[in-house]
Amino acid sequence: MNLLQDNFPTFMQGFGYTLLSSIIALVGSMILGTVFAIMQILPQNWVRTIGNVYVQVFRNIPLLIITFFFFLVVANYVKISGFTSGTIALTLYTSAFIAETVRAGILSIDGGQMEGARANGLSFWQAMRHIILPQAFRVALPSLGNQFINLVKNSSVLAFVGGLDLMYQGNMIAANTFDTFLTYIIVAVFYLVITLPLSYYVKHLEIKLKHAA
Amino acid sequence: MVTLGIFSAFTPENVLYLLGGLGVTVGVSIISVILSLIFGSIVGIIQFERIPYFSKFVGMINNIIRNLPLLLIIFFVYFALPKLGIHLPIFWATVLAMTTFESSMLAEIVRGGLESIDIGQFEGARANGLSNTQTMVYIVLPQAYKKMIPPIISQLISLVKDTSLALGIVLSEMTYRGQIVYAQNSNYIIPVLIVITLVYFLLNYGLSLIAKWADHKLA
Fold it and tell me: In this predicted complex, what is the ipTM?
């Protein structure tokens, strides 16, 4: 346990960066994902196509490649750090999955809801914001929770671009102390501190939703 | 100069080298998916059967693995297991890490699939004189697998994407070989990244079309 004591500030710094990157990417990808989900169900063909292409492209390529693109290509033109490149890539990647989840949530809402809202004089956007989306998010909540767990786990790619996150610091400590075994176990515990409670909460939500239906 | 880079990056040697990387990517994916289907099914069935203590214990281990980053598992297998005297070559270390991680993911899918089967199927099979094992093998699992094909394929897609993480332990797969190619000349970075992206996309988009087709066909 000396290893933990000696390197505690470094572990905590990594933990902080992992948490920070995850929260920024969560907020960003929720907004972006919702926008692309709505784009995919609009009547205009060209808007739907843009939404579909975006989602399909980012869902089907590795997060690591997107990260490298920002770190190696974009960073040449705009000054961004490894942490920023990783977080932007994480946001774009996750938003594609969130778009799919939110779209499924919207489609699960009965068509009568939209018709009723429109018949009562709400515009399409008002109906979307006040009637459809609140219901869709409730249905999608467990899957969104799973996406957030994935996001936290995926934030470990920051280690490849010097993102100072938990995985990166873990690698550094492992390389310095040669105690790879204990270091990676400690890193694992730090990740579980975030993901395990979330996964139990998601399970709880799933059960609640099943009973409500 | 950039246009020059686009063409000169893809000399026959470089193209062959990248294709070899694609072979490693696909190889790791296929071996891992077959192994994790087997182990994932076993773990999923154990969790579904609710054997006292044992199922809970397996479920707990499964939950822990599922909630760790794959990258951490890869590093652990390659850098930490040698401390316990287990030395694996890079390729098999990747396969072991991927299989461990994907098995725990697939176990959840299998358990979910089994739970979605109507209890009447079990009762009917048992009433007709089939044993517990026979009920599982001939009646329940075939129905459950049918429902599980789309989620299993999306798991396969993330597996193909995740092989790129083995870059961290210098597995010579496509992303790593791409790095080697653009290390020759910085003008190669953009064309090589674009081509690798395209290859991953085509591979995974093809798989997702199969998932969609299976979903329609089986629904």
Answer: 0.91
